[in-house]
Write a structure and sequence with these properties.
The structure holds 2 protein chains of 2 kinds.
Chain A lengths: L3 E4 L2 E4 L5 E7 L5 E7 L5 E9 L2 E4 L7 E2 L9 E3 L8 E8 L9 E2 L3 E5 L1
Parallel strand pairs in A: 2-11
Antiparallel strand pairs in A: 1-3, 3-8, 4-5, 4-9, 5-6, 7-8, 9-10, 9-11
Chain B lengths: L9 E5 L4 E6 L7 E7 L6 E7 L4 E3 L3 E6 L4 E6 L8 E8 L7 E3 L3 E6 L1
Parallel strand pairs in B: 1-10
Antiparallel strand pairs in B: 2-7, 3-4, 3-8, 5-6, 6-7, 8-9, 8-10
Classes of the chains: A mainly beta, B mainly beta.
């Protein structure tokens, strides 16, 4: 079982609020990722990072932003939440710097914006 | 945002039978493929992977087959158990050296006791 933690597990918040979804891993992995997943649907990459101070946008456009100040921490922020942001957000990390290997996922944050 | 209803292909099998889950991938240049299992309320869990220079790889009760000619990937589960019930996703590294996994649509596997 990979050591990657996401908090909160569930979040219900009103429109216009600023929120930060937390993701931490204790494995020292350089690569970290955020995926968005609607119920019953595939995962879409929204952000990724190859190391400290490295962040890139993924394949799916997202109004969220990320930061990578420490290796173990990769938070995702929504400045002004909207109902269209309602979804599940999954964080992942990978230990194969320069190579190929599976992503290890957290259990996700299920966000509902009312 | 939210989608209403499930859009997943489904596969229903009897306990003890073998299961085959199929996936068509999109990028002929993809060099690495993974199968994940996702149970309700959890993140995806790694099952098995395969590199593009192989066409078959076996794990414990699972086998992945890769057909690059038709861009097809399959997951075979031997002696399927109720605990295998979950959604299964294939994923491909479509980013080359910029390692990024692109996920396919999942398949819901239901194992009947």
């Amino acid at each position: 079982e990979a050591d990657i933690y996401q908090t909160p597990r569930y979040l219900v918040i009103g429109t216009g609020k600023k929120i930060t979804l937390e993701c931490s891993q204790t494995m020292g992995h350089d690569k970290m990722y955020w995926y968005q997943q609607d119920p019953g649907m595939e995962l879409h990459l929204i952000h990724y990072s190859y190391g400290v101070n490295s962040t890139e946008k993924g394949d799916l456009s997202s109004e969220s932003t990320v930061s990578r100040i420490r290796t173990e921490h990769f938070p995702l922020t929504l400045e002004s939440a909207r109902p269209s942001h309602t979804s599940q957000y999954l964080c992942a990390s990978s230990d194969r710097t320069g190579g190929l290997g599976p992503l290890h996922f957290g259990n996700g944050t299920r966000l509902t914006v009312t | 945002g939210e989608s209403v209803g499930l859009h997943l292909p489904t596969l229903s099998v009897q306990e003890g039978d073998n299961s085959i889950i199929n996936c068509a991938y999109s990028n002929s240049a993809s060099d690495y493929f993974i199968w994940y299992k996702q149970e309700s309320g959890k993140g995806p869990q790694f099952i098995i992977d395969i590199r593009s220079n192989m066409d078959k790889r076996q794990g414990q009760r699972v086998t992945v087959l890769l057909n690059k000619t038709v861009k097809h990937l399959s997951l075979q589960i031997a002696a399927t158990q109720p605990g295998d019930s979950a959604v299964y996703f294939c994923a491909e590294n479509s980013g080359g050296s910029n390692y990024k996994l692109t996920f396919g649509k999942g398949t819901l596997l239901t194992v009947n006791p």
